[in-house]
Design goal:
single chain, alpha/beta, Quinone Oxidoreductase, Chain A, domain 1, Rossmann fold, 2 domains, 7-stranded mixed sheet, 6-stranded parallel sheet, 9 helices, 26% helix, globular
């Protein structure tokens, strides 16, 4: 099969378009013919060696955890799926080597859900990691109908999905973003505010009594501002700032979860969730896709198109 692989840690230049052996299919896994694969910041952080202290990595290494594709073969105990089923997955395994930047990927059934027909292949590939991150962050702080949520980096890949999930739950959302993304946030149902100096005052102008929950999807020192706006300082969650736990909040490292992924697919089927796609690159141009991700200027998801 064709795949993007690396033989050592490094920047985008170490990503190569190569021939790799077809994956072996474990008893509780299925073999997926990949239609599209999502590109996430964690991918280039792994390739760069930034997570070496946390994750075992083996070379040659195929990056990628997001996938959308068609089941081509099933393991002997993977009774949940059949050949021809369309699936999506956050295919994070205990060790890093056989990722989704490839024509074929073997995925444990615990990482998969059925693809929502309402989403294109590209949109579906961008949903799992970012959608699960947003969903699990919202769940962690018990966000519920009638509350007000402050979402940092609301126009990004995770933030834009968090906005939609919260709005679907009947939550009022105030989202931080640059001014060029304010109309985009309004289209998702959020009330936009510009980040940077004076953020607290701008949020207070919209919510004089403060906010119920705060979701940090960017880091960059927003925790103190968030806690100053929270009615309950503990209802703070971050995916980007390890100090959140010291401040009484919650750190989320997204987990594969079929039930959560199915809930996201159901929202998409109901017309309450879509996946904004920033850019689509062919598999062979994965290095360019990673460079775009590293720039931090994408609005929505970056996706690799693998097969048609």
């Amino acid at each position: 099969m064709k795949a993007i692989s690396v033989n050592s840690y490094g920047g985008p230049s170490v990503l190569e378009y190569t021939d790799q052996p077809d994956p072996k299919v474990a008893p509780d896994s299925v073999l997926i013919r990949v239609r599209a694969a999502g590109v996430n910041p964690v991918d280039w952080k792994i390739v760069g060696g930034y997570l070496d202290a946390m994750l075992y990595a083996h070379f040659p290494l195929i990056p990628g955890w997001d996938v959308a594709g068609v089941v081509e073969a099933v393991g002997v105990d993977a009774t949940e799926y059949a050949v021809g089923d369309e699936v999506i997955g956050y295919v994070r395994k205990d060790e890093v080597q056989h990722g989704t930047y490839a024509e074929l990927v073997a995925a444990p059934v615990r990482t998969l859900a059925r693809k929502p027909a309402a989403l294109s292949w590209q949109q579906a590939a961008g949903l799992p990691l970012a959608g699960l991150t947003a969903y699990q962050a919202i769940e962690r702080v018990g966000t519920k109908r009638g509350e007000t949520a402050l979402v940092h980096a609301a126009a990004g890949g995770v933030g834009s999905l968090a906005v939609q999930i919260a709005v679907a739950r009947g939550v009022r959302v105030i989202g931080t973003a640059s001014e060029r993304n304010h109309d985009f946030l309004r289209s998702l149902g959020a009330e936009p505010v510009t980040y940077g100096d004076g953020l607290a005052e701008r949020v207070r102008a919209l919510a004089p009594e403060g906010v119920d929950v705060a979701l940090d999807f960017v880091g960059n020192g927003v925790l103190d501002v968030s806690q100053g706006l929270l009615k309950d300082r503990g209802r703070l969650v971050s995916i980007a700032d390890g100090e959140v736990q010291q401040k009484g909040g919650h750190m989320v490292w997204v987990r594969p979860d079929t039930a959560d992924l199915t809930a996201l697919a159901d929202l998409a089927e109901a017309g309450k969730l879509t996946v904004p796609v920033d850019a689509v690159f062919p598999l062979a141009e994965a290095a360019e896709a990673v460079k775009r991700s590293m720039s931090g200027r994408s609005r929505g998801k970056i996706v690799l198109e693998v097969s048609s």
